[in-house]
Amino acid sequence: MLYVLVITISIILEFTTSINPFMDSELHAIDWVGTSIDSVGDNVLLMKTIYNEEYKCILPDDPTVKNEDAKQSYNGPTPEELLSDLFTQSSCSYRIESYWNYELCHGKHLRQYHESKELSQKKPKIQEFYLGFGEQKTKDGTKTSKTEEKPIIKETKIKSRKIDGITLPYFEFNMTDGTLCDLINEPRQVRLQYICQPDGRGEIYELKETSSCEYEVIVLTSLLCSHPEFKPKNPPVNKITCHAMEGSPAKPKELTKWNKEKSEFNAKVEFIKHVSTKDLDEEEEEEPEPNIPDKPTVNQRVDTTLGETTDKQVLREFLSGDYCLQGGSGWWMHEFCFGRYARQFHDDKDGRTVIFLGRWNEEKHLKWLKLNPSKAPKAVGSRRSLTLLYTEGDVCDITGRKRHVEVRLKCIQNVNQPHAVSIYLIEPKTCEYILGVESPILCSVIDKADKNGLIKDFVP
């Protein structure tokens, strides 16, 4: 947190052209260190507040000049040489998610897999895809098996991307010839982007599918940090050290007063947050959430808000299947049409790709309820949600079976947003989905369903 203090400045000494006091694109923090020191030089200036409090401040050197000098004078290892230890090590990096796991053997391959074991099985059953392999050759130039020998890393132009608002250079390494993708009838491929992180040991920071069966992975490593080209491009916060001159307090009085008021305000905010969180936790204990994994593996929750005057109209159209809900924020979007279907889709220049996750079939839903009585609605007056099974989705290329999805309609009380609708989609098992729709406007519907969760002849 940077603090701004309005003061009147009297410049006594001149400073070099390497310091530009009007450069507002650089971040500076003032460190009030107390007693004065006998210091003179090009980067020293005197400041005086409106209350005649005097301070001697030492300005930092221009970081841009220092960074450029470091780049020009650098004659150390290349990025390829810095990463060679990581690419030749025998151990791999792993990312564990709620269903899929990922194994990254640097320079060799990236594997996506899931292990499942039933009581009748001695060994776990493994489902796996290779998202890509590294290019590898022998000393005589012939291509070898994709999991042996040291990879040939090609030198590329240094690129940058923003991560959490910070522009970071990265070294890109591509893996190709992965498992064949049925959607596009081409092998999977992945772009690995290695970035400098002082504590990084080759772990996967982020993995996402940027297009059908094409992936992008951010990898953290400390090996690149010694190379000046891979330092964060955003300038760091530069410190200005200010010493109080004789007769002046360690910090300006106005700043001390402002800091005290700020601390008291923050303490009140934390108290309010604590009380609110406690109240919410008690409410959740009384009304537990359905059993949904903590980390959705397909798409995150998406919220939308309907106007109050259209609630009843939208609800009628929703229950008749004429109004469909859409969600998703990545490559794949999802759509739910009540009483009709749930599907995923993606639009690009070549048109729309659609995968049906399930279609409504009342007879199959009733058979499923008989086999899973715990999915049936609770008694009228005590229920908060309904679960409906949509079957006969598109065939899954992994399991060879048709997809299906459990649709969970939930009544939630939200005084601040009484017309909000939330939709999410997760994949707890391969090609078996849970689609949730939560909204206060569903509260008038839940208790009107019959013992099988079916909503018939209901007029909002």
Description:
With 460 residues, the protein is an alpha+beta fold. It folds into three domains: 1-76 and 235-251, no CATH class; 79-226, Distorted Sandwich (Cation-dependent Mannose-6-phosphate Receptor, Chain A); 299-446, Cation-dependent Mannose-6-phosphate Receptor, Chain A, CATH 2.70.130. The protein has six helices and 24 strands. The chain has helices spanning 63-73, 79-88, 253-286, 311-319, 362-371, 443-446, and strands spanning 28-35, 44-48, 54-58, 93-96, 101-105, 109-116, 125-133, 159-163, 166-175, 180-181, 186-187, 189-196, 201-211, 214-221, 238-244, 299-305, 325-327, 333-337, 341-348, 351-360, 385-391, 404-411, 420-429, 432-439. The chain has a nine-stranded mixed β-sheet with strand order 16-23-24-22-21-20-19-18-17. β5 and β6 (109-116) form a beta hairpin. The longest helix has 34 residues, at 253-286. The radius of gyration is 30 Å and the shape is flat. The two termini are 51 Å apart.
